[in-house]
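User: I'm putting together a teaching handout on how multi-component assemblies are represented. Below are the sequence lines for each component of a complex, exactly as they appear in our records. Could you produce the 3D structure of the whole assembly as structure tokens, so the students can see both representations side by side? Please keep the chain order the same as the input.
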Amino acid sequence: MIQFTHVFKRYPGGFDALRNVNLQIQAGEMVFITGHSGAGKSTLLKLITAIERPTRGEAVVNGKNLLRLPRRRIPYFRREIGVVFQDHKLLFDRTVYDNVALPLIVTGADPHDIPRRVRAALEMVGLLSKEKMYPITLSGGEQQRVGIARAVVNKPPLLLADEPTGNLDSKLSDEILDLFLDFHHHGVTVLIATHDGHLINRARQRVIELKQAELVSDSGAAA
Amino acid sequence: MIKNYLLRHAQVFFYSLGQLTRTPVATFLTVAVIGITLALPAGLYVAIENVQRLARGWEDNGQISLFLKQDVPGSSIEKLAEKIRRLPAVSWVDYVSRDAALAEFKRLSGFGEALNALDRNPLPAVLVVHPAAAYMHPDKLQTLLKDLRRYNEVDIAQLDLDWVRRLHAILELARQGVLILASGLAVAVLLIVGNTIRLAVLNLRDEIEITKLIGGTNAFIRRPFLYAGTLQGLLGALLAWLLLALGLLFLSDPINILAGLYGSRFEAENLGFLATLTLIGSGGLLGWLGSRLAVSRHLRAIEPH
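Assistant: Of course. Below is the structure of the complete assembly, with chains in the same order as your input.
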């Protein structure tokens, strides 16, 4: 699903965000990426979602070579990846329902299917009763779950999460983790960037550690 | 597939319409500026069209007025009129005697009282020569004019078509002027719409960024802005048409009075069907193009980070 070979990312000004990263993640795996802030976690996710391009090396995600992916193909590439953001990135002038429906509308899904699919995703995250509410009236944990519902409503084969539990207490974090484990058990490739040790210990999955732009340890696939 | 595509477009259309009605004052101001901008060249065009239509009626009865010397006696005038009448190029000749000319002038000019004060009639006798239909051609009329000038009794021979032609030349010039003005104002409409859409794009920065992150194509993101720009252009054009109609309504009474003074039943007309379509079409097209240029320029700057 993800294959990085000698990948470098250098930002203008000479700052190295990633140095010689080699990484292979099979379809259906669940992987945690950990490390201090500034270690390169976010840059790795930005490369995978084609927000940034690698400076050097070969990066293949979901069968697409990111160095050669034309700009106009990027939207279609992103439709295969669900992303959960630390700051949720919800639209506050739209209801929960409309936020979750957005990826379906963007991809031109059959309008008759949209209500059913949106409600299925909301049910998965336990927010079906709040579909008519606006995100601003929801708690942080609920907003994060709206973001998760939006990320999975298209049933993407790859799910990324950047510090998904960053602002949540441990009980809410556990709930969010259970959701990700559930997706993993349904065959989705899940990649979570976090420095939440509690979360990593509880999940018992493969862990990759980044340190000063380099990949320093890889626990290997979980048993 | 096609049904879904149309349905999606209809949804975006109503969404854009909804966005416009949500900010009624801003929308109204933009539409008003576009309307006034478009009404300016359209109004000039209507004025020129009407004058041209009026002049077209005069073109067909090209006639030559022979102003005779003051000292030519009535009997010689009759003989001259008879001679001219027999020319193959001439259809008929009207003789306006000095007395008749004076009476007519008194009646039409409103200077009756003042003319009574003169001790003698200052007006010359006039022979109005109506050329035969076959000779109603600029070159042939010129030849006839030259021939008529040769008679001793004739003081001044004047082809009344000259000023009609000059008027046409002036109108043609004015028409070109309107074209130049319209091109300039079209650019103004582009800038107005572009600026409105630019602000809308910047206001929706977050939404655009998120849409890009979840795989929205540029075409998808552009669509509501294009609809908004096109709608504003169309509404502006409709307003321009309305302004023209109101202006003509306001002017119709004075025009009727003026036409009445010339014994004409001329009535000013608004834009014809095709010209109306052109006006509305240009409004929509300029709105679309203005938003297209603005969106494309600013969309590139908004990338997720």
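A couple of points students might notice: The interface with chain B takes residues 49, 51, 72, 75-79, 83, 89, 91, 102-103, 105-108, 110-111, 150 of chain A (CB under 8 Å). The first helix of chain A runs from residue 41 to 48.
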